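Exercise 7. Predict the structure of DoxX family membrane protein from Rhizobium fredii.
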Amino acid sequence: MTTLRTTPMSASRTIHRLHDMVVEWATALPLSIVQLAARVAVAEVFWQSAQTKLASWPVTLQLFAFEYRLPLLEPGLAATMATGAELSGAAMLALGLLARLASLMLLGVVATIQIFVYPDHWAEHLMWTSLLLLILSRGAGVFSVDHLVARRIRAGG
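Solution. The predicted structure, encoded as tokens:
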């Protein structure tokens, strides 16, 4: 009986120790690494989307005219605005340049896509939104132009 009692207890302790080690390791992970990963991941999605639009502009215009159908915007204007927002937002995020502004802009793009274009793709949009909200709320992190500029301003030059 004692043997049966000891085995689950030691297994339980091992699991608790393992859990504590994982939590300690995760807590030690610098937030700036997470911010960089979030910026690169979202930037890649929107950069590729813009590249696809630019690769065949006539097809893009047809998509905006017949499939996307954004209210109140002429399809050519909507396509131009979407492509511009995706290109500039992706570049800004990748560099960490005005990253909070880029996040706001791309959150607007995601909201538009979710509401008017692909409402059934909410899980994917929620993932993008989560990463963009991280950047919006915590900034671009140490590995960014924003950080370099802020450091220079604080140094007085």
